[in-house]
Amino acid sequence: MLTAYDTMMAGIFDAAGIEVLLVGDSAANTVMGYSSTLPITMDEMIVFSKAVVSGAQHALVVCDLPFGSYEVSPEQAVSSAVRLMKEGGVHAVKLEGGQFFVPHVRALVAAGVPVMAHIGFTPQSEHALGGYRVQGRGDAAAVLVADAQALEAAGAFAVLMEMIPTGTARQVDEALRVPTVGIGAGAATTGQVLVWQDMLGLGSGKSARFVKKYADLRSVVSGAATAYREDVLAGTFPAAEHEFGDR
Ligand code: KIV
Ligand code: NA
């Protein structure tokens, strides 16, 4: 599973066989430049969803319910998810949280909305959690297992775990029948997810411990922009093969 927010990247990942594309609310950071995921809106998520859905032929497309679009009530969760599916065209939604959201997950599943649950470090709660911190250490592991089991019983089709110790992730995975997806949760989960700009090395600055950089797109893009500018200044672009003649 990889994130995608636009049609071309979605098409490339889909053609490469990536099984699940996540229209993550990480678009708040990676696309919009907001300093957290909290400000991103339903309308923004719908725009990204439409783009990803149009680029994907085979992948399951999952969209995050953004902060503020589902917490108030199961009814609010259903109406937001319906918008993401109807207007955005996605196949499933993801929401952050544990046992408290069991009624929300039940209502979504009853309405025909496939739900992926997201537990462990949940970025929409970063202020409540005191920042980007590993969750589920020590006694907290049992809480995560109970959360995951409750979400599975409520009908979640998969459980995503972010930034938790490998041993905790293994306990959760072993306690469930549905697949698990990890990010910063070790290798015991059924699948993995990464944010594509992290995975392809597009961002500046240091990446998180759990990121593996499979490419260095930042230097590729930056080198191309520099070469283009130099060509234009030197008059070597456009060349004859880029020009239109009279006839
Ligand atoms: O928004 C996102 O990209 C996510 C993944 C990192 C799990 O929720
Ligand atoms: Na997210």
Describe the structure.
The protein is built from ten helices and eight strands. By secondary structure, the chain is of the alpha/beta class. The protein has one domain: Phosphoenolpyruvate-binding domains (TIM Barrel). The chain has an eight-stranded parallel beta sheet, covered by helices on one side. Helix 5 links the parallel strand 4 and strand 5 (115-120). Helix 7 packs parallel to helix 8 (166-175). The longest helix is centred in the last third of the chain and has 18 residues, at 217-234. The chain is globular, with a radius of gyration of 20 Å. The relative contact order is 0.10. The model has no long low-confidence stretch (mean pLDDT 98). The site of sodium ion has 4 residues, from loops. It catalyses: (6R)-5,10-methylene-5,6,7,8-tetrahydrofolate + 3-methyl-2-oxobutanoate + H2O = 2-dehydropantoate + (6S)-5,6,7,8-tetrahydrofolate. Belongs to the PanB family. Pfam families: Pantoate_transf (PF02548). Keywords: Cytoplasm, Magnesium, Metal-binding, Pantothenate biosynthesis, Transferase. Catalyzes the reversible reaction in which hydroxymethyl group from 5,10-methylenetetrahydrofolate is transferred onto alpha-ketoisovalerate to form ketopantoate.
